Q: What sequence folds into this?
């Protein structure tokens, strides 16, 4: 590894716009909360590890989450540690989601959790908080909380989470529209395990304003046109896509094709507790396997700031440094 390249990436002002709080739980916090149970780091942290499928990944991740996220205070503790770590990595802006499914499973108050995450944000870091809702997440039990969420002051947006192959409920388009009407930004996970047709679905039916993953848009020129014409960025997570076998190898990751098609892309880590990755690892993968230059890496960082949900003055101040 070129130490100059590592130093460049470390010093580069960065964003992280695709991060699940449950999936970014620091391993040492999980160990401290469950002495003896998680003594060894996961096999999934090894570079050559591949999950069998999404269900394999999700079951492992949810097991960790169930062991730790038992209260709003635990969310606060996790968020505080994650935010401190990202500031040390020269990250200035973050979009982090927490899962409504965890609120359901653990019978937690979603507003209280959202407020606890907001209270953990340190001075000097811009954070936007999203509520992740699974395809079938609008149940009789959860409907009151999801409706109330549209009024939460500390909630900045909503995101579609979960296995893409589960059909979208009829409730989804109306809820995503009402979220925007309430001033919330709307995102969706798509184009990971399902192909470009599902990207088109969440853009046209839900009105998603940003796509989490979306890497399989490269398979359909018409979907690339749709994303480009609507100025919809993709928040990519290369190591996640690699370990979940969305792509066969790092050198086959199609980010260059997406960029060449005029699609704006950003770089994030997704679920580091499952992949053992850092934001520096993501940038290094692009440099070492796809020959990205330092100028190209800096442009990816600038893309994150350009698409930040922040004032133009603030964005310009960071763009001038990236």
A:
């Amino acid at each position: 590894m070129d130490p100059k390249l590592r130093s460049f990436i470390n010093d580069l002002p960065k964003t992280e716009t695709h991060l699940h709080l449950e999936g970014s739980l620091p391993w040492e916090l999980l160990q401290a909360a469950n002495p003896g149970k998680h003594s060894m780091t996961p096999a999934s942290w090894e570079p050559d590890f591949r999950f069998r499928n999404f269900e394999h990944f999700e079951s492992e991740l949810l097991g960790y989450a169930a062991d730790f996220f038992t209260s709003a205070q635990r969310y606060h503790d996790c968020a505080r540690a994650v935010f401190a770590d990202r500031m040390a990595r020269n990250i200035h802006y973050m979009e982090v989601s927490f899962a409504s499914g965890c609120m359901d499973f653990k019978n937690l108050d979603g507003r209280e959790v959202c407020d606890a995450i907001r209270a953990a944000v340190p001075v000097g870091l811009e954070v936007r908080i999203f509520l992740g809702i699974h395809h079938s997440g609008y149940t009789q039990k959860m409907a009151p909380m999801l409706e109330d969420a549209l009024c939460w002051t500390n909630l900045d947006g909503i995101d579609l989470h979960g296995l893409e192959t589960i059909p979208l409920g009829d409730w989804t388009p109306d809820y995503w529209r009402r979220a925007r009407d309430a001033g919330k930004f709307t995102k969706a996970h798509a184009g990971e395990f399902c192909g470009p047709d599902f990207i088109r679905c969440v853009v046209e039916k839900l009105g998603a304003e940003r796509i989490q993953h979306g890497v399989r848009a490269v398979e359909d020129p018409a979907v690339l046109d749709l994303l480009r014409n609507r100025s919809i960025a993709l928040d990519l997570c290369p190591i996640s896509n690699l370990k979940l076998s969305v792509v066969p190898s790092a050198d086959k990751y199609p980010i260059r094709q997406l960029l060449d098609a005029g699609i704006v892309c950003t770089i994030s880590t997704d679920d580091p507790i499952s992949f053992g990755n850092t934001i520096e690892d993501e940038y290094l993968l692009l440099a070492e396997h796809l020959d990205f230059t330092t100028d190209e890496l800096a442009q990816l960082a600038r893309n994150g700031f350009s698409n930040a949900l922040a004032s133009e003055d603030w964005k310009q101040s960071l763009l001038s440094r990236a």
About this structure: The beta strands are 14-20, 91-99, 126-134, 157-161, 185-190, 210-213, 234-236, 265-267. The chain has a mean pLDDT of 96. Residues 3-319 form a domain with the TIM Barrel fold (CATH 3.20.20.140). The first strand starts at residue 14 and ends at 20.
